[in-house]
Amino acid sequence: MTSSSAASRKALSKIACNRLQKELVEWQVNPPAGFKHKVTDNLQRWVIEVNGASGTLYANETYQLQVDFPEHYPMEAPQVIFIPPAPLHPHIYSNGHICLDILYDSWSPAMTASSICISILSMLSSSTVKQRPADNDRYVKNCRNGRSPKETRWWFHDDKV
Amino acid sequence: MDLVASCKEKLAYFRIKELKDVLTQLSLSKQGKKQDLVDRILALLSEDQVSKMWPKKNTVRKEQVAELVDDTYRKMQISGAPDLASKGQCISDSSNVKIKGEIEDPFQSDIKVRCLCGRLLETESMIKCEDPRCQVWQHMSCVIIPEKPVEGNLPVPELFYCEMCRLSRADPFWVTIQHPLHPVKLNVTNSPTDGEWISLCIDFKLRICEVHSSLFSLSNPVQTVEKTFHLTRADKDLLSKQEYDVQAWCMLLNDKVAFRMQWPQYADLQVNGMPVRAINRPGSQLLGANGRDDGPIITPYTKDGINKISLTGCDARIFCLGVRIVKRRTLQQVLNVIPKESDGERFEDALARVCRCVGGGTAMDNDDSDSDLEVVADSFTVNLRCPMSGSRMKVAGRFKPCLHMGCFDLEVFVEMNQRSRKWQCPICLKNYALENVIIDPYFNRITSKMRYCGEDVAEIEVKPDGSWRVKTKSESERRDLGELGRWYLPDSTLAPTDEEIIPKTEVLKQVKQEGVSEGHTGLKLGIRKNRNGVWEFSKPEDMNTSSDNRLQVPFGDHEVKVIPMSSSATGSGRDGEDASVNQDGGGNFDFSTNNGIEMDSFSLNVDSAYGFSGQNPSATVGDAEVIVLSDSDDDIMPSGTIYRSERNDTGGINFPVAPSGIADSYGEDPTLGTGGNPCLGLFSGNDDDFIPLWPPLAPGTQSGPGFQLFSSEADVPDTLVGLPHGSINCSTSMNGYTLASETAMGSATLVPDSSVGRSDADMNDGLVDNPLAFAGDDPSLQIFSSHETIRCISAF
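YS: structure for the whole thing
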């Protein structure tokens, strides 16, 4: 898995734990359409199955998202990556890293795992072409030591896809 | 100097930013060249042009425009904006410009200068710290460092805080006790003596960082600073106490997030020769907008007497380093700093915000209002869960400057910020400081009421007037809630129920309650535009029966005459001669009894009769009559009248006045109460013109304490104030929308009220999760007013 660093993170704080339990309950009652939470006993790492929305380039395709929650969630954004193979998308690197502002600079503690999922699905759905980002190879090489995408300085430039 | 000339002179100093600010406050377009903007403001000051471009001239008078210009001008000067000499032009030497600090602030006779450069002379343009207790002046060229080099004038930040004040806001869990080392800038050093050391340093950096980023960092200059600071024996004694510490801190000058620490890339901090870890992020990683650095505690590395501190970094930006003695605050101590509920914000302001967010949006842009209808919900669902904890809020906190109504759980928020040091609104993501945190007086009353509810109960329904009740899935669930299942008035006092006996003195209270808590008999009012472009109201049949009953009971002795104004010029209600309700309103008003659903309608819950419904037998002439609307009938267009209800805030928000006051006045003269609803203005106005729907009633025809609202000449508030039993008047100002009510009734053309006092780009954020997007920019949304109006009439 790409993010070895996340696994060794500190345990969740009490607030984070409570909050995640609430999110999980909420998810079970009202899961976002197209997503399935794979049940584990690990509250800190969620693995979520994504089904490409019908009528989009990713229809009938299934991917897996890995969401790692930091100690001080939700003040800090979770680390969200696709477990390779990642979908071919102009903002998704082959190592699964996602260039999406809400995962980094625009994260708000008011967001939830569920709202992230919806954003990612919307990002997939609005794609018009299946291709990797232009700098994919360079970026992936730089990350080969298991660097977290949260350590990347992302440059969000495209608001269309 | 006359108004226009003095404003013109001031406007000449304005930059685009100030011009836009002024235009925003005047709800005018900000498009165009600079000169266009200036002209637009100046045009307001010359009467003849007003009506052309700005149809609601009653909203803001010339004096107000002038005042606004004056205020902005003053603010600009205080913040140290350069003088006329340099405005707009590229004058590279800004040091020619003198600031007029002394003149601007008569209370501040001596100017404190404290600058990173150490000089105390006012040799160049200066900028003053915004903090009222600090107010030091600093050299602009020392502290204002733009991201990119600019020619000419330095961009002046809206609110400038000196680095000390920024520091004290960066983490309120630390209180500064003293500064052993005042902030000093890091310098790019080229001196030969340091050369060797720097190259060593670079070498060290190269080893520790990844190659790709070190290449980048090498393009950045190496910055360094080496200083000594002194700790006395007394300091050391102080520091032996657990809650005291020595902290090294570093800040980026002109950081876009003002209240945070930030260390340079590859920061290498040493205290007395010992390396101290300054940051947790990798050296190559820049601090994102969401990131916060901390100031490391260096107490263990310090000793009595002289201490040495050095910082090196590879960064192109300019930082300052300082050392301070701090005292740790506990969570409770920080919470205690937050003002009490009653001190943070007036309840009325909080309520006005809620009403604005729930009741409709900003009419920012009338051009967008091409649709004839807006969907308006009767109530809004508001989720009381804290966005951070996911649990229902115990104490509802908010940042005072935020416009949205979303709150967060105060304790959870503060506790989380103990670690994250963010002080960022989780809803709108604006950065603030602890000093901006307040308790929301509106929502806190609600969350306190619900304190003992089950955790799963977290949603409430809020009406546009601010009254609320707990939202339940079923009626049985509602019954289980007991009192909490009922409607509450905006101030979170329980709204009386229908079953309660109504003593005479409380009639108005009853009225008020009906106006507010119409939860029981939801009657549908459908409104649509017919082919002639005339609005039609329709209502289901059952409305009258229930409402009639209600009307007759409380008002047995006080007959009410409600005269609806027909839109036809004949205006049968005009002389007040006719008890019968004006049914033949020229066809503009069709009170049909077909159901409202098929008329792509608003469903407005109105639970009592419309005065103008012919089926209402109680609407007979009495000693109190209510004149709904008037205007000079010259303006009346007999047919094809298009109107859109103007939001009438006097109506909508009046109800929440303290019930006692109303009841009292009512007790003195029960008959009066009939008039006690200053909400009768069903005004109209399409985008271009105000076309009165109904002819006026001459005031003279009032035989009793009737209210004539909105006569063609009078200002609404004036009219109200003149009333003898004016307990309701207070609400006019209370609701904070006085301006809006004035607007509502210009004798000239009217546009649906736009952005006066409300802006709610944020309104769908946060707590509001009503799926109906209340397009904030469509004035026709404000059909609520007619809703209110009708409700009021019915309450007589």
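YS: worth flagging: Chain B has a mean pLDDT of 65.
IM: good catch. Also The radius of gyration of chain B is 32 Å.
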